[in-house]
Design a protein that fits this description.
Elements (H helix, E strand, L loop, with lengths): L3 H12 L7 H8 L6 H11 L3 H5 L6 E2 L4 E5 L5 E5 L5 H20 L9 H6 L14 E7 L6 E5 L2 H14 L8 H14 L4 H8 L4 H4 L21
Antiparallel strand pairs: 1-2, 2-3, 4-5
């Protein structure tokens, strides 16, 4: 049986070049986004997050004193990334917004945010505590059919995707842009700034360096290809 199709598939994977946005293009898109979508995109690009990692953030994940964000990635593997200093005021304002929302929810008989069953069983009051609240909460409460409880879920990814699609069109960006494009852009911009590839691997949460190496295809080669005499350097 021929194995050519498999070989072609591997070749296609190796030649895949991610879509990357310039800083000017990212700024143009951000100008077309309203809150909270602009803050979501700022975190996707500023911290190199996957969309689910960003929407699953809780208040407890932000350490403003240390300037660090804890990210809960694939396979329940945590990593830390620096918080972008340029958006710290917006991030702190979002925490205050969540605080006010929690106060209103508790006054309305709120049963808390959705948590893992094991966590809630061990800490019954945790769903109502500020540290466990979603950083990007959904606007409306969800009624649990089995219990009738009112719970709050995080911002749904479809809402971000719809807002982003419209913003890209308004900004007239001639590229196929998805939420993941900002993660690609994060890695490529760090590589262009001469960050070590293994440092970028750690910040992205990649298990294999091979996955991170794909971004080398996005950065122009700046090395001299022809040998020269050291006297001429």
């Amino acid at each position: 049986m021929s194995r050519v199709p498999g070989a072609l598939q591997n070749l296609q994977k190796s030649l895949y070049v991610p879509v990357v946005l310039s800083r000017e293009e990212i700024d143009a898109i951000l100008q077309q986004l309203r809150h909270p979508f602009n803050l979501v995109v700022n975190l996707l690009f500023g911290c190199g997050l996957r969309l689910f990692e960003c929407l699953h953030l809780r208040v407890r994940d932000f350490n403003f004193d240390a300037g660090i964000l804890t990210v809960h990635g694939k396979g329940k593997k945590d990593r830390t990334v620096p918080l972008p200093e340029s958006i710290l005021p917006e991030l702190k304002a979002q925490v205050e917004l969540v605080k006010r929302l929690l106060d209103r929810d508790l006054a309305a008989g709120f049963s808390g945010v959705f948590l893992d069953d094991a966590v809630e069983k061990k800490y019954p009051h945790a769903p109502k505590e500020l540290i466990h609240q979603w950083f990007f909460p959904q606007q409306s409460l969800t009624k649990v059919a089995e219990t009738g409880e009112l719970r709050r879920y995080h911002l749904h990814e479809s809402l971000l995707q719809e807002a982003l699609y419209a913003a890209v069109r308004k900004a007239k960006i001639p590229k196929r842009v998805t939420a993941h494009t900002f993660r690609h852009s994060y890695a490529t911009h760090l590589l262009q700034a001469n960050y070590d590839i293994r440092t970028i691997q750690t910040k992205l949460g990649h298990a294999s360096l091979k996955t991170t190496m794909i971004y080398t295809h996005c950065v122009p080669v700046r090395t001299v290809k022809e040998a020269r005499s050291p006297l001429d350097l």
